[in-house]
Amino acid sequence: MSRSLETTVLSVAKLKLADLEKEERTRPENHKQFGSGKATFDDLVAS
After folding, report:
1. What average pLDDT does the segment 1-30 reach?
2. What is the dihedral of CA 39, 2, 21, 19, to 10 degrees?
3. Number of DSSP helices (H) and strands (E) in the chain, helices first
4. Which residue from 5, 9, 18, 41 has the fewest beta carbons nearer than 10 Å?
5. Residue 4: helix, strand or coil by DSSP?
6. CA–CA separation, 34 vs 40, rounded Å?
7. pLDDT of residue 11
């Protein structure tokens, strides 16, 4: 799955990317799969 940062300005994109990464790391469904170390290949591709 790809998501747009909705900008063409590199400095803005870097800031938005950092925010997006932080948001993805705090999603509960990611913690359940990846935190246990039992993520499947399909889980990794889907994230």
Report:
1. 86
2. -160
3. 3, 0
4. 41
5. coil
6. 9
7. 96
Q: How far apart are CA 33 and CA 45, in angstroms?
A: 12
Whole-angstrom distance, CA of residue 2 vs CA of residue 32: 22
Q: Residues 17, 5: contact at Cβ < 8 Å?
A: yes
> Could you tell me the two tokens for 13?
């994109």
Decide: helix, strand or coil at residue 36.
coil
- Please state, in angstroms and rounded to a whole number, the distance separating the CA atoms of residues 8 and 24: 22
Q: 24: Cβ–Cβ under 8 A, 6 or more apart, which residues?
A: 30, 47
Domain boundaries, the chain: 18-46
With 0-12 / 13-18 / 19 or more C-beta atoms within 10 angstroms meaning exposed / middle / buried, residue 29 is exposed
pTM for the model stands at 0.55
